[in-house]
Design brief:
The chain is α/β, with parallel strands linked by helices. The chain contains 12 helices and 9 strands.
């Protein structure tokens, strides 16, 4: 039985995937069951995969997107510990070994997450990924788990189901919340384990309004209420994508306030007192500075 299964969902990330694969295969002193699930890429991805011969398993065939690819990879593996690494992200040396060792020493912990960095196209650190110690109530407000730095036991999949394939952007966030809501034990390993790449073709960067809309839909379904912070984040994303408001700070502030109120009624059917107070202060300050 391998120590750990790593799944890499892939689609047209040929410029990065070799570095992703090497960050897995270069790991020492751990038995890794590694599979790349490619969605029939049309770039050089398959040529890169062929270069590794029998060092990894891979498939390249049409699929239903990233979430389906991860689920398919999980079904094709057998190890008791699972991690997934997108085809433009990397593990730092020793990350997988540290995860395996922690699970072996802590049988009551089912999910661990480490610290991480945002990295650029050349693997240089842009900034640390914002991470906090474990707290479910705080996780509802802020997604502070960096997906490539998360590892979990297979039994949580078997008990609580795989990733939700109806989600395109927040499938990982929904998964963490679903597990935590069910009482699964999480632990923060305070070590930098992974690099999460930011670049122009990143799915979440290119679709911020869709991302925040999907997150709000998911939170509403999971907890029957969307936290005020996520409503405000959605409004900020809307205004940031509107060129009419990018140069006029005061108009943008008013627009954010209005969109936050509308978002609250859209998802929660009402507006909390703290949110109403905050938006009214935004409106008041914007008009005061404009006069």
């Amino acid at each position: 039985m391998p120590d750990i299964a790593i799944i890499t969902p892939s689609y047209n990330q040929g410029q990065f995937i070799e570095r992703t694969i090497q960050s897995v295969l270069n790991e020492k002193n751990v038995e890794i069951e590694y599979i790349v699930v490619d969605g029939a890429s049309t770039d050089n991805t398959v040529d890169v995969l062929k270069q590794f011969g029998e060092k990894l398993r891979w498939v390249s065939e049409p699929d239903r997107g990233q979430t389906h690819a991860v689920n398919k990879g999980i079904q094709m593996t057998s190890a008791d510990i699972i991690g997934w690494l997108n085809s433009d992200d990397i593990f730092y040396p020793g990350a997988i070994q540290k995860a395996v060792a922690f699970f072996a020493a802590n049988p009551k912990i089912d999910v661990i997450y480490g610290d991480a960095n945002h990295i650029d196209v050349n693997d240089q650190v842009i900034e640390p990924y914002y991470t906090e110690n474990w707290n479910l109530e705080r996780l509802k407000e802020v997604c502070y788990l960096c997906q490539p730095a998360v590892f979990f036991r297979r039994k949580v999949i078997e008990r609580f189901g795989q990733l939700n394939e109806n989600l395109q952007y927040c499938m990982d966030y929904e998964f963490w919340l679903r597990l935590a809501k069910a009482g699964v034990s999480f632990y923060r390993l305070p070590q930098v384990l992974a690099g999460s790449r930011l670049h122009a073709d990143t799915k979440t960067l290119g679709s911020s309004v869709k991302v925040h809309s999907e997150i709000n839909d998911m939170l509403r379904q999971t907890f029957q209420r969307v936290p005020d912070r996520w409503l405000s984040n959605y409004a900020h994303a809307l205004v940031a994508n509107d060129p009419l408001h990018q140069k006029d700070t005061q108009t943008a502030k008013r627009k954010i306030a209005i969109e936050t109120i509308l978002a609250s009624f859209r998802w929660n059917k009402w507006i909390s007192f703290p949110l109403m107070r905050m938006t009214l202060l935004w409106l008041a300050s914007s008009f005061k500075k404009a006069t």
